[in-house]
Design goal:
CATH topology: Rossmann fold
CATH class: Alpha Beta
Mean pLDDT: 93
Largest sheet: 5 strands, parallel
Oligomer: single chain
Family: Belongs to the cytidylate kinase family. Type 1 subfamily.
Binding site for ATP: 21-29
EC number: 2.7.4.25
Shape: globular
Number of domains: 1
CATH architecture: 3-Layer(aba) Sandwich
Bound molecules: 2'-deoxycytidine-5'-monophosphate
GO molecular function, one term: ATP binding
Strand order of the largest sheet: 2-6-1-7-8
Low-confidence stretches: 1-8
Domain Cytidylate kinase: 17-228
Number of helices: 10
CATH superfamily: P-loop containing nucleotide triphosphate hydrolases
Order of helices and strands: HEHEHHEEEHHEHEHHEH
Length: 234
């Protein structure tokens, strides 16, 4: 009896939600909003790969040499703040939220994130953050459902047509050329999908949501409903 009361007072059990998909599918906006609405933590794993890439560029590591990338992979301290209303990312104490979004980092992040030692390091960090999230967490990335958290309670794979993804990304980049953005995005997705170690992929048990014709609000509502159904045991 006592344990039943304790369970009821403790609220819903922590829920782990993995949201994967290529860039421009609305992963970040959706993941943050779903986490905020449901009182969960939020982790942007792309920001971690961008942060380690930023550090390597900043430190002068030769990014054409995978062994140099591998040797440096354990050096920087990367810390992610998981409040969905104000996520943060620091490298050795420096706030890099702005610098990790530059074109230079974006063009180099696929090469850095393909190196197995980098993935092992960042994956371990991601698992420890998810394990520490007491109320549960929404983790977004490319390999969360397949590799990082294969036992996640709910796995979502977001997709959208290349045109829709390029249009959204150019909007975010404040009017960048749509066709150039489309080419860069297709190139990055191809690199992320074809690498040997934990490529961008849909887990067999993930729910696929095609966001091409949906507004952001509709995608958020769809994912919130899926989490609530999961929590209700449906
Ligand atoms: O989501 P994003 O565009 O900020 O991600 C940046 C890059 O990081 C992306 O091109 C591939 C890599 N990435 C990854 O390899 N695995 C993840 N779980 C998340 C991102």
């Amino acid at each position: 009896m006592e344990s039943v009361e304790k369970t009821a007072a403790a609220g819903p059990a922590p829920v782990i939600v993995a949201i994967d998909g290529p860039s421009g599918t609305g992963k970040s906006s959706t993941s943050k909003a779903v986490a905020a609405q449901l009182g969960l933590s939020y982790l942007d794993t792309g920001a971690q790969y961008r942060a380690i890439t930023w550090w390597m560029v900043h430190t002068g590591i030769d990014l054409t040499d995978p062994s140099a990338i591998a040797a440096a992979a354990g050096k920087p301290e990367i810390v992610s703040g998981t409040d969905p209303s104000a996520p943060t990312i620091t490298v050795d104490g420096t706030d890099v939220a702005g610098p990790i979004r530059t074109g230079e980092v974006t063009s180099k992040v696929s090469a850095v994130s393909a190196v197995p030692e980098v993935r092992a390091r960042i994956t371990e960090l991601q698992r420890s953050i998810a394990a520490a999230a007491q109320d549960g967490i929404v983790v977004e990335g490319r390999d969360i459902g397949t590799t990082v958290l294969p036992d996640a309670d709910l796995k979502i794979f977001l997709t959208a047509s290349p045109e829709a993804r390029a249009a959204r990304r150019s909007g975010e980049l404040k009017g960048a050329d749509v066709s150039a953005t489309r080419e860069a995005l297709i190139k990055r997705d191809a690199a992320d999908s074809s690498r040997k170690t934990s490529p961008l992929a849909k887990a067999g048990d993930a729910v696929e949501v095609d966001t091409t014709e949906l507004t952001l609000q509709q995608v958020i509502e769809c994912v919130v409903t899926l989490v609530e159904e999961k929590r209700a045991g449906k």
